[in-house]
Amino acid sequence: MRSWCLCQICTCGSDYRPYEIVKQPRHMPEEYKPKEGKIDLGTTYKRDFNSYKVQPVVIVRPVERQQVKKGKLDTVPTYKDDYRSWEIQKCELCKPEQVYHPPAVKFGNSTTFQDDYVPQEIKPRQSFKPCPVVKCSTIPFNGDTSHRLDYAPYQLEVKFARPKEVYKPTDQPFEDLTTHRNDFQGLTGETAKICRPSYTRVTQNAQFKGSTEFRESFQPWEIPPPEVKKVPEYVPPTGSMQLNSTSHLDYVPYQASRVVAIRPVSHRTKNSIPFQGKSTMKEDFPAWESCRQGLIKHQQQIPNPSGKFDGLSTFRSHFVPHELIPTESCKPLKAALKSSVPLDDVTMYSIEYTPKKQEICPASYPSPPGYIFENTNSQGHKFFRKIIPTVKAF
Fold first, then answer.
1. Which of these, 61, 182, 354, 393, is most buried using a 10 Å CB contact count?
2. Which among 20, 23, 19 is positioned nearest to 374, based on CA atoms?
3. Which residues contact 147 (CB under 8 A, 6 or more apart)?
4. DSSP label at 273?
5. How does pLDDT run across 57-92, given as a tens digit for each residue?
6. Pair 187, 341: CB distance under 8 Å
7. Cα dihedral sign, 218-219-224-225
8. One of this protein's Pfam families, by short name (predicted)?
9. C-alpha to C-alpha distance for 194 and 345, rounded to whole angstroms
10. CA–CA separation, 284 vs 287, rounded Å?
């Protein structure tokens, strides 16, 4: 497919003519000039609050006096003097000794539980579940339903069947020529020529200066190394260290005896009579043998099948295998059609493209052509003004 475009002549160049533009005046800031003299750094805080010499506070705490006594303390406190231990005599028990004699006659009184609850024989409950045995009926089965009795069959008309048409192939050959094959015949032609102008690199003989405004304004300054505060060397004190404390000097060790535990004497008497562990509960309710009721299984009504399983289904018995015939492909062969006509590789781009002249950036020149130098600001930037050609009026 080919694309077509319409070219229109622009009237902008003929209607709009260049006029001289007066540049607006720019406000130039005044150059900063530092004032002469020194800055007065005095403040009201420095004027009103004078510095005084501060001395450390003297501790009013009295000096601790260490009184070391070498004599032994032999005194009786008021608690031991007022509360003295008295001898206490143990009281004798006045309870007469009673020896237990078990009765020789059996206990014959019955309890209310034995009188009211008489043991009875446990009988299994009767099952009211219906019997699952199939009951066969002697009456023949009547297959009449309401649908069979009420439905009346009607005679249907014969349906018209359209005869099947037999396929008849045409005698004319098949036209498989498409627009793609008609227009593009697959010929090998010459490659399209690029109409782009060759790139010419602009170079200068002068050596590039790597200095910038930042490098010129901000020069490296020497920074003095930080002062390291010297730590005074540790000097251990002379003489031996006194490890005596007030507790070590004032404490006098005493020999103390361990307190003996005062445990009361047990008056437990031992009996040689054996223990009788019988009770009315054990005599009246002995352990009975109990057995769990087994499961009630019913006899199988349907007998199991006998003989070998055939494994033949209705699908296998009715299915008839047919031979598979593959469908014939009508796709044309991928054969490239050659033509003796040369390829027309002329395009709209190669016909209407006009190469433009590559302009050079004016900043690369020390004095750019077509510009007039005006002034330089305080930061060192140069300003140029473009020369506008004068246009004569008609």
1. 182
2. 23
3. none
4. S
5. 777 776 666 666 666 767 778 888 887 777 878 877
6. yes
7. positive
8. SAXO1-2
9. 12
10. 10
3-class DSSP assignment, residue 88 = coil
Count Cβ atoms within 10 A of the Cβ of residue 200 and give its class: 0-12 exposed, 13-18 middle, 19 or more buried: exposed
For 30, the token pair is: 């005044």
Residue type, 34: P
Q: What is the DSSP string of 6-61?
A: ------HHHH------PPPPPPPPPPP-PPSS------HHHHH-------PPPP-P
Q: For residue 228, give both structure tokens.
A: 């390291």
Assigned token pair, 69: 């006594």
**How long, in residues, is the chain?**
394
* DSSP E strands, 134-287: none
Cα separation, 181 vs 245, whole angstroms: 118
Give dist(CA 381, CA 375) in Å, integer. 9
Between CA 345 and CA 190 the distance in angstroms is 8
Alpha carbons 344 and 189: distance in angstroms, whole number: 8
Q: CB neighbours of 72 closer than 8 A, spacing ≥ 6?
A: 252
Q: How far apart (Å, rounded) are the C-alpha atoms in residues 263 and 275?
A: 30
Burial class (CB in 10 A: 0-12, 13-18, 19+), 324: exposed
pTM of the model: 0.15
Given a contact cutoff of 8 angstroms between Cβ atoms, the answer to whether 358 and 200 are in contact is: yes
Q: How far is CA 130 from CA 126, 127, 135, 295, in A?
A: 12, 9, 12, 17
CA distance 227 to 225: 6
Element (H, E) at 374: strand 371-376
Q: What is the four-CA torsion angle of 214, 215, 220, 221, rounded to 10 degrees?
A: -60
Residue 368: other Cβ atoms inside 10 A? 15
Q: Classify the C-alpha dihedral 372-378-380-381 as positive or negative.
A: negative
One-letter amino acid of 226: P
78-86, long-range: CB < 8 A, 24+ apart: none
Task: Name the DSSP letter for residue 378.
Answer: T
**What pLDDT is stored for residue 204 in this prediction?**
66
Q: Is 311 left (phi over 0), alpha (psi -120 to 50) or beta?
A: left
CB-based contacts of 57, cutoff 8 Å, min separation 6: none
